[in-house]
Amino acid sequence: MRFIRLGDVIRAQRKGRFTVDQLSERAGVSSGLISQIERGKGNPSFKTMQRLAAALELPIGALFQNGAPPTAGVPSDPDGLNSTSLHGEQQMVVRRDARKKLVFPKESMVWELLTPDLNRTLEMLRAVVPADYDTREVPFVHQGEECVHIIRGKVEVHIGEQVFALDAGDTITYDATEPHWWRNRGGTEAEVISACTPPSF
């Protein structure tokens, strides 16, 4: 598995645009935590990454791009989430044991990329959502449409002012330009599949 130094990517995206204090104010993340992350000392949560990506006006996947020096740190891009050099089967097939993962240990949150890379017009992700977890602090807003299918568990999807309670086997499709967020309303882990066009991660 390849690791990237997440702090180097955040610093590169920030420099020339914002000071640490300015990014802190925009993201609602303390200056101290941003500095720790940039120095490779922090272990940011998924919610923190959402906030930083939104403040930098980037999809969260942009914070996990190739190109930073490899080091022990955040597991990401093991075979190239953003690869443009896949050939043959790799261009079309993702084997179960070869899925690319983004793991956030603090929250037991796991995202798996089901499409070969992020350079597609369609993106599919599998998410394992911890019990009682929600993303209301930083609602998702992005271009295009999103379709979410519940594999197991009970998930509440908020789209603007509307609320939809979904159970295993249910699917919802919506305009992703509306602020939206999820809540695991069950007492156990939930598993969902999300498809977006164009890619939003």
Automatic annotation (TrEMBL):
Region (Disordered): 67-87
Molecular function, one GO term: DNA binding
InterPro entries the UniProt entry points to: Cro/C1-type_HTH (IPR001387), Cupin_2 (IPR013096), Lambda_DNA-bd_dom_sf (IPR010982), RmlC-like_jellyroll (IPR014710), RmlC_Cupin_sf (IPR011051), TransReg_Diox_bact_type (IPR050807)
Keywords: DNA-binding
GO cellular component: cytosol
Residue ranges constituting the HTH cro/C1-type domain according to the UniProt record: 19-63
Protein name: Cupin domain-containing protein
Organism of origin: Candidatus Nephthysia bennettiae
